[in-house]
Amino acid sequence: MLKVFFADAADGAPVPAELRGLTSGAQSGPPGIRRTLVMEGLGERLRIEVTAVGKGRTQLHLWREPLPEPVQLGPEPVTAVPPADGLTQREREVALLVADGLRSREVAERLGIASQTVKSHLKTIFDKLGVRNRVELARRLVQH
Q1: Residues spanned by the domain of 139
Q2: Percent of the chain beyond pLDDT 90?
Q3: Do residues 50 and 103 share a domain?
Q4: pTM of the model
């Protein structure tokens, strides 16, 4: 998966410098500190999130998603419809963070929004995806 974004990535090869920096940044704080890197290329987006778990160890989470293709409707390109699940970009961000185990307050802090806004997004996400709780949401996102 990393080879798409890091040409030198291979089994046994050194970790790319960008990921080493991300890992070092997470490890510089207490356990639970997260650092994120988002990259776009070749028609897709890669989101890499590193979480410090203590004692110099980190967890690495990767998400890949296709980038919407621009649609020419006039002089300015317009972004195509979002993924088939119907979630907006912000709803998708909230859903991924919640599925990763963050509480509403933590999601709010991470995204710079109010905790009540996160709860509102969750209600909409649950309705759109046909799930009843955070566990079902996490399972649903793993399937896609």
Answers
A1: 70-144
A2: 16
A3: no
A4: 0.45
Instruction: Work out the end-to-end distance of the chain between its first and last CA atoms, rounded to an integer number of angstroms.
Output: 16
Query: What's the CA gap between 93 and 106, in Å, rounded?
Result: 13
pLDDT tens string 90-106: 888 899 889 888 999 99
Burial of 111 (C-beta count, 10 Å sphere; 0-12/13-18/19+): middle
Look at the block and give the residue holding tokens 């590193």. 50
Answer yes or no: do 78 and 141 share one domain.
yes
Q: Are 52 and 58 in contact (CB under 8 A)?
A: yes
**Is 130's pLDDT higher than 60?**
yes
- Show the DSSP H helices in the chain as ranges: 17-27, 89-99, 104-111, 115-129, 134-143
Question: 56: Cβ–Cβ under 8 A, 6 or more apart, which residues?
Answer: 27
**Domain match, 78 and 53 both:** no
Same domain? 138 vs 76: yes
How many domains would you assign to the chain? 2
